[in-house]
Amino acid sequence: MKKYLPCIMIMFFSGMFCSGVLEQPDEFATITFFVGDVKKNAAEVQIGEILNENDLILTGTGASCDLKIGDSMIRIKENSKVQMSQILRGKDAESVTLSLNVGKILCRPKKLLKNENFLVRTPTAVAGVRGTIFTVEADSKKTTRIKVFNGKVNVVRRVDKLEEKIGITKILEETAPIAQNEKVVITAEEVRAAEAKVEKALVAKSGDGPVVDDKGISRAVAAVAVATRDVHRFKVEEFRQEKEEFISVVQRSPEVITAVKRVIKRESKTPMPDGSLLVTRHDIFFIKNGKVEGEWKTIGAPVRKNENIYIASKDYVFCASIEGPVMWRKKISNDGKLEIKQDELFVYIGGGARKLDLKTGEILE
Question: What does the buried/exposed string (b/e) look like for 95-124 if buried means 16 or more CB atoms within 10 Å of the residue's CB?
Fold first, then answer.
């Protein structure tokens, strides 16, 4: 076990459509990190794994999966199903389309060039951006919720017949965008109504039979566009709840990834009964059964007693040996400040403190 001490301690005290042909080069799209139960095409995934078109990502309860596609970052949240419908890059441009069947994704696309695309499709909506920060949710009833945290997002109700007729790029260009701090909800019922209007608009008649004129196209686009009355501003507290997570949707440093992989490999070969802890300058990783099962931000400095270290995140307090194996963890809200007094661990929160047993983590009266 001593041979693992250096890698753990170093991390602990140190301290993240175009001209030409589009193709998918190696490592253009990869899984940069994941927590919990994540599968690609029904198989277990690995950090650094390459993604190809039509790959399907499934995340379990409490899980998340970070993707890097070109210079864009995406986080797939728990209980989600996302397909890589298009992930292509040419010499001068990129074209990315993600299909969110159910669940939630956080998107930080790169600043796109004029001839590039970044689209997110759900069963009832299509969102297109040029460089912004936004979330997309889709539930089992096919309701779509989109929030814009920075920049603008063009959103339309998804009607495949209209897309086949004039293309999604043209539809999005002719609709007003959703701006920063605005949100929109699109339901399956709304889409059915839009489909009926599109059907009618695209089957205008003349003396020679059915035709589609510019007016018909305009009426069809208006049917799928999101009206001003359907756009709402979301509350500041909604932004606060997700701002911290958006900040964390970034490429982790090679040093952190190397350390995580090392502990994962160790845990796979020689599992610890309660898993292992890896602490970096900013993060706490709880690794068990060969995968990262939890990730938290470090708030305060850790404390040490003999061969054990104690560290707190916002929701947990951990005790681990200096070699990494977890001795215990306790779910308890805290301010990140810990202190050891007379063989008791004091956990501070809101100006008060709770006492925990150093050996077991049990709350002491």
Answer: bbbbbbbbbbbbbbbbebeeebbbbbbbbb
Under 8 Å CB-to-CB from 299, ≥6 apart: which residues? 312, 313, 314, 334, 335, 336, 337
- What pLDDT is stored for residue 139 in this prediction? 97
- Give the C-alpha separation, 336 to 312, whole Å: 5
Question: How crowded is the C-beta side of 276, counted as CA atoms within 13 Å?
Answer: 28
Identify which of 355, 358, 337, 335 has the alpha carbon closest to the alpha carbon of residue 346: 355
Beta-sheet pairing, 64-69 with 276-279: unpaired
Helix locations, the chain, DSSP H: 5-13, 160-166, 168-173, 188-201, 214-224, 236-248, 254-269
- The closest alpha carbon to 286, from 253, 256, 247, 325, belongs to 325
Predicted TM-score (pTM) of the model is 0.84
289-342 pLDDT tens trace:
889 999 888 888 899 999 999 999 888 999 999 888 999 999 999 998 999 998
HSE, CB side, 13 Å, CA atoms: give it for residue 354: 19
Among candidate residues 348, 263, 226, 357, the one with its CA nearest the CA of residue 299: 348
Phi, psi (rounded to 5 degrees) for 362: -70, 145
Residue range 5-30: average pLDDT? 49
User: For the chain, what is the mean pLDDT?
Assistant: 86
The DSSP bridge partners found for residue 328 are 319
Report pLDDT digits (tens) over 128-153. Answer: 987 688 999 999 999 999 999 888 99
Ordered by where they begin, the domains of the chain are 17-248 (2.60.120.1440), 254-364 (2.40.10.480)
And the tokens for 199?
């059907």
- Contact present, 67 and 105 (Cβ < 8 Å): no
